[in-house]
Request: fold
Amino acid sequence: MRTAEFDFALPAGLIAQTPAPARDQARLLVLERAAGKLAHRRFVDLPEYLRPDDVLVLNDSRVIPARLRGRNIRTGGKFELLLLEENAANDWWAMLKPGKRARPGAKISILDRSGEPSSIQAAVLETNAEGHRRLRFSGTENILAELEALGEVPLPPYINRPSPRPEDRDRYQTVFARADGSVAAPTAGLHFTPEFLEKIRGRGVKVCFITLHVGPGTFAPVKAAGVADHIMHEERYEVEPETARLINGVKTGSRVIAVGTTTLRVLESVARDHGGRIVAGAGRTRIFIYPPFQFTVVDALLTNFHLPRSTLLMLASAFAAPGETRGRELMLATYQEAIARHYRFFSYGDAMLII
Reply:
């Protein structure tokens, strides 16, 4: 398959710049994949599509305020830092802009939100093959504890605002977020409220969680001409014993419903490595799902609308027709319908249920 086959034209006005007034007030496009049938609903209608003893799986990773501002101590040049992954306390991999000035040995003064130097510094230790910098922080016992005061919400690049708003700290975070580590939200989960989750539990649906720390690669378009030539980014995950127990014990006629592509990737990755079963534990995944792909665990997918040429659109296309290639055509036709009906796209946008 060619990457260009997953392209589509999206009017800029349909890229959601702000969330819906209330989390559960987004629209919901339902695709019944076997029949190719579409229904236009509201997110609050989701329980109508759930059955008693279904297992709803969500990603509880928490977005950290990972974007920092800094200044080169020697030259005064400005830097933007995006923390990616913690190696140990005060030892992080990060993206720096401009990267060409962030050579090993450079020392950076971290600025507070008013643009003034804080007591914290970062030293560039090395550069990896992806162009990321390894940083050693000083002036604090743990930079992670300082991020709430110094850092900004790392909104995606397609949200065109000069700076994050105070409400982004709440709305670009799921209500069930628990484990620090993501630099992008698992956006399908943004639509849920505590009350809505209780309503779902009240219908006999079992709700459980995995953790996958979302990295910046989730926004990266596929640049390789051939889909199979793309090198997938790696992300850390963890599966709790209770989640493994619920999924492995799913009853005949009931389904495993993944909330978000991140959740689906964890479940299918673990199942692939363990003979179709879900096994508790931590690991890393580079699983790249594109048509044709045969799914082992997940029976339904709740997701948002994704970028052209993205790995997420390819995953949704694979899920639209498991084991076949026609899911691409079905998904792109569905997206054209969503565009015609002015659904809102991407992180702060509307939702889609594929059953």
Remarks:
- Helices lie at 147-150, 168-171, 194-202, 241-248, 261-273, 311-320, 327-340.
